[in-house]
Amino acid sequence: MLGFDIITIFPDYFRTAFDYGIVRRARAAGLIKIAAHDLRRWTQGRHKVVDDRPFGGGDGMVLKPEPIFAAVEELTNKQNEDEPSKLPARVVLLSPQGRVLTQSLAEDLAQEDRIILICGRYEGVDERVAEALATDELSIGDYVLSGGEPAAVVLIDAVARLVPGALGSETSAANDSFSNGLLDCPHYTRPPEFHGMRVPEVLLNGNHAEITRWRKKEALRKTKRNRPDLLERATLSEPERLWLNEINQEQ
Ligand SMILES: C[S@@+](CC[C@H](N)C(=O)[O-])C[C@H]1O[C@@H](n2cnc3c(N)ncnc32)[C@H](O)[C@@H]1O
C-alpha cells in the first residue's frame, strides 16, 4: 500500500481528481490511498494565515514555513507512532525549480510506502522547506503553474499506475513510452481505413513475429522524429541499431 498525503491550501481541488480509471481502481483495490489536507489546519490564530510578504520586497506572497513544518511533523508522527522522529521516505516539495519528474523517478517513487506532497502557491514556498524538510524538490516540467495542485495530480497519476497490480494483469507499463528509454510505437484500431488512411498492412496479417518487429522499428522511428534527445541517450540492442540504420537510409 502506497499512501499519498497532499498538503494544500485548496483541498477541494482534489475532490474528484482521483475518481477515474486506473487511479480509481488502485484506490478501490487498496493499493494506494490518497488524502488531501488543508494547510490551514496547522496555522495559529483566528485568521489562519498561511502566507506572508517576501523579505527583501517584491511582488506576491510566500507560503510560510511554520504550518508546513507542523503539517509534515504531524502526518509523519501519525505514521510512525513507535518512532516519532523518523521521517517517511519521501517528502516532495512541488516546484518548478525542482528536478524534473521522469518515468524512472516515477518508478522509484512507486516503491515507497508513503509520499507527502507539498503544494506551493503564489510566489512559492519559504526556501527553508526545500532546505530542511523536503527530501525531494520536484518539477513536472519546464513551465510555471499557478500552484502545486495540478503537479500533485500528475505525479500521483504517474506513480500510482506503476504500483504493482495497478495496471491489472492484461496491461503492463513495460512497453509504455520512456520505460525502455524510447517512445511507445504507434497504435491503431478499427476501422482499417479512415479518411483514406490505411492501417499498416502488417498489423492486419496476424503474424505476431512481424508485428513485434514492426512495433519496435516504428517506436524507433517515432522517437527519432519527436524526441531525438532520447535516442541519443538510449542503449540500443543489435537489432534496434540495424533498424535505426534502415530508418536513416530511408530518408
Ligand atoms: C507560481 S508558482 C511559483 C513560481 C516561482 N516564483 C518560480 O518562478 O520558480 C507557485 C507554485 O506552483 C507550483 N508549481 C509551479 N510550476 C510547477 C512545476 N513546473 N512543477 C511543479 N510545481 C510547480 C509550486 O508548488 C510553486 O510553489
Largest sheet: 5 strands, parallel
Q: What spatial order of strands do you see in the largest sheet?
A: 2-1-6-5-7
Question: Judging from the principal axes of the Cα atoms, what is the shape?
Answer: elongated
Number of helices: 8
Considering the protein shown, what is the CATH homologous superfamily of the largest domain? Answer: SPOUT methyltransferase, trefoil knot domain
Order of helices and strands: EHEEEHEHEHEHEEHHH
What features would you describe in this structure?
The protein has eight helices and nine strands. It is an alpha/beta fold and 251 residues long. The chain folds into two domains: 2-160, SPOUT methyltransferase, trefoil knot domain (Alpha/beta knot); 193-250, tRNA(m1g37)methyltransferase, domain 2 (Trp Operon Repressor, Chain A, Orthogonal Bundle), CATH 1.10.1270. The strands form three sheets. A five-stranded parallel sheet has the order 2-1-6-5-7, with helices on both faces. A two-stranded antiparallel ribbon has the order 3-4. The longest helix is centred in the last third of the chain and has 19 residues, at 208-226. It starts with a strand and ends with a helix. The mean pLDDT is 94. The chain binds S-adenosylmethionine. Residues 94-97, 119-121, 123-125, 139-141, 143-148, 151 line the site of S-adenosylmethionine (SAM). S-adenosylmethionine is lined by residues 94-97, 119-121, 123-125, 139-141, 143-148, 151.
Secondary structure topology:
Layout: E1 2-8, H1 21-28, E2 32-38, E3 51-52, E4 62-63, H2 65-79, E5 90-100, H3 103-109, E6 114-118, H4 127-132, E7 136-139, H5 149-160, E8 193-194, E9 197-198, H6 208-226, H7 228-233, H8 238-250
Parallel strand pairs: 1-2, 1-6, 5-6, 5-7
Antiparallel strand pairs: 3-4, 8-9
Helix pairs in contact: 6-8
